[in-house]
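quick one, 452 residues, struct below
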Amino acid sequence: MKKLFFPIAFLFQLFGLVNIYAQNKQDFSALAKEAEQSLKKGIAFMQTLDIEGGYVYHYSLDGKEKWGEGKTDDRTVEVQPPGTPAVGMSFLSAYRITKNKDFLKAAEEAANALMMGQNELGGWDHKIYFDRPKGNVVSFDDDQTQSAISFLMALDQEIDNSELTKTIEKALDMMLESQLDNGGWPHQYPWQGNYHDYATFNDKGINDCIRVMIEADSYYRKEEYRKSLQKVSRFLMISQLPPPQPGWAQQYNEFLQPAWARAFEPPSVCPLVTLNNINSLFDLYLHTGKGELLEPIPDAIRWLKESRLPNGKWGRFMEIGTNKPLYYDRGRIRVESVEQLSLERSTGYGYENDIKDALDKAENRYLQVTDQIEEAPKPTPANVVNQLADNVQEIIKRQDDLGRWIVSQDRFRKEVPGTWNGEYRIEDRISSAVFNHNVDVLCRFLKAYKSL
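---
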């Protein structure tokens, strides 16, 4: 047998590294215990707000007032993030890190709410109304149906529940059935005879469907899921618009033409949609290994760089042919700038976005996967623990004795009859989005700490 010899210097180096890691773990052991306690308190409090296991976006401090998209009631929960699926995923993430069975039970209760709210078609609309008949519309807007399926599939990896399995199978069958012949997904399903039938990238509709099908193929390895991904891959390739504007539109009609949706959403080339599609092409490439999926990316990145506005942002809609930003009010009334829009439009819709950091990240991702630059080294657990420690301490500090993270002096639209008049309410509230964010930070810290 060959003897192995290690230089003395290397052994000292290795011993020193082990000592550093051990010291790091010892240094943060108290904080890790506090982080687990914070999760327990936060999740226990959040469960006091549930409605049949489901959640909305915001709560008054006494829990009596509730808001989703507008004010809601005690028999309604939200499917759209940061509502029920997102909160359920927070519970599940906490369970995976700590193995605390109470967290798993909380996740199962959130799943039960979604299972009760699944409609006959196999999907979900914006909300679940527990005191009304189920609707007959599946919404792919704003990660509604998609986030529900993602969460349920993730939970399915942890528990054995026949009803959960049936719910997932029905949802995935619906995903296959609703996929358009061209490979995209509509804004809503089933066919309505209007813009809801169009293949829709707006609010990441198709991108979130791609994520779901990649997850389904990873979990269950069925041929029909692979074929679905092949169809949508082709759709991404053929829906890219030609030079000199090689981006993507928000929605496409049955002739694969950019089309109107709502009266303020014109056919156009859309920077944010283009950036989202670049990232979906990366995801599909990494999942399938098909190199042709990278081919549309360089031209799209070039166009995005050329389309930056003088104020440093990017328009939501760029006019086909001129590459000028488009601003439309209701009634398809075109104006020249954000300042000329009505109050409702200027405050309720992102006509301009800053995507510079995300674009830089996408370009670096392309250069890395094509071996043009070296991939940045992944942070070690010790790096992550050190980077997150201050955030974790702040999260623990801001949690009160009841386990709440209170959003102090939250500013939100005041509910008024008819068109909103510009008035705001300002008061302390509980936010599901803040809860989800804090649980995510605590879980990432604990995962890194346990890896030391």
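Confidence is low (pLDDT under 50) at residues 1-6, 14-20.
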